[in-house]
């Protein structure tokens, strides 16, 4: 009996013992191709010498000192590096230990900003129905993944939700992409007017939706309009790049491709590439200055924030991404992967949509390709695919997400940035074989 409280209480898991490049091995010596980076975490693959050496060096110097008493060289250097990479006035970084914590910090920063600015009535968040922002109660409150929210609904705080940007399901026949983008983005304006602009603090969204949609980019012009609306009504724009940031979509921040700059951006997962747990909330200078020149104290903290070893791992990760030109590689391999998936999986009767940016790719499963009817919500397709794929030596990330509030099934692919073209072929062929086998269970 395992004394670890596993999330899936009854599913025995293989024991991982080592990793190399894009492969992991279990205690029976079985190899698994990491087709999803865990949950879009392992962007440099496994056993990366440079990152390990940076952690070892920090361990030798000083592994931990509480951030209330000391700063550290690694956290200072990492914040400086992020400030160089982030556009505009996104110049201040608050370090935490993961994605949910980064989102919590962002939400509370938004609130404290308006309190410091003398607008304490601003207290409402708006988010989207197709979203996931983390499992802590604040992050879960703004998130829109109904399946994850359901048991906790009575203890969540109030948040307001608008439609996602989901062209595959929502764009009407004859409606241009731009017209569609404006229609859904304008829902934000309608919601702000309904609540009263004086009451709304912030809008939070993932530039490319992850854990509820496989991977779902916005349509052209959507985020530009969102930015305009936020500016008009003095509403902060928080972009959650916990999953899609740190190069995953082919640019360091996914929002760079939208040609906008948020007021706050959250990152985690790929920031430490899985070598250390770390998240970060990067904020615009105006927000920092409002707090710094107001009470001078952000009313929020965690024991492990700014952990020197986590910061050292993140710094080495970022330096590797930049110096090894991995962003170029992500863009190239992403295009190759999309095209291979379209050729191989596209014809399958239950593959409705294949989409994504860079090496952040979603596959939407449907019961009927023409009507786009989702698989029945009771379908355990995601569990079946995961089990079969693992048997076949492939890690992919099938999920029971939501399709605008209802159940939907998607598979996320997010392999390490170092994946080679022949390894993409192996990934696609293993996934194809796994889908053929697993679909027998729901067809
Ligand atoms: N935001 C987004 C966009 C995420 O995808 C996730 C995790 N899937 C989180 C927040 C929460 O991150 P964590 O699991 O590290 O708390």
UniProtKB/TrEMBL annotation:
Q: Which cofactor does it need?
A: pyridoxal 5'-phosphate
Q: Pull one GO CC term from this UniProt entry.
A: cytosol
Task: Give the family per the record.
Answer: Belongs to the class-III pyridoxal-phosphate-dependent aminotransferase family.
What name has this protein been given in UniProt?
Aspartate aminotransferase family protein
Give the matching Pfam families: Aminotran_3
Keyword Transferase attached: yes
Q: Which UniProt keywords apply?
A: Aminotransferase, Pyridoxal phosphate, Transferase
Query: Which GO molecular function, any one, fits this protein according to its record?
Result: transaminase activity
Q: Which organism is it from?
A: Photobacterium gaetbulicola Gung47
Q: Which residues form a coiled coil?
A: none
Please name the Gene3D superfamilies in this protein's record.
Answer: Aspartate Aminotransferase, domain 1, Type I PLP-dependent aspartate aminotransferase-like (Major domain)
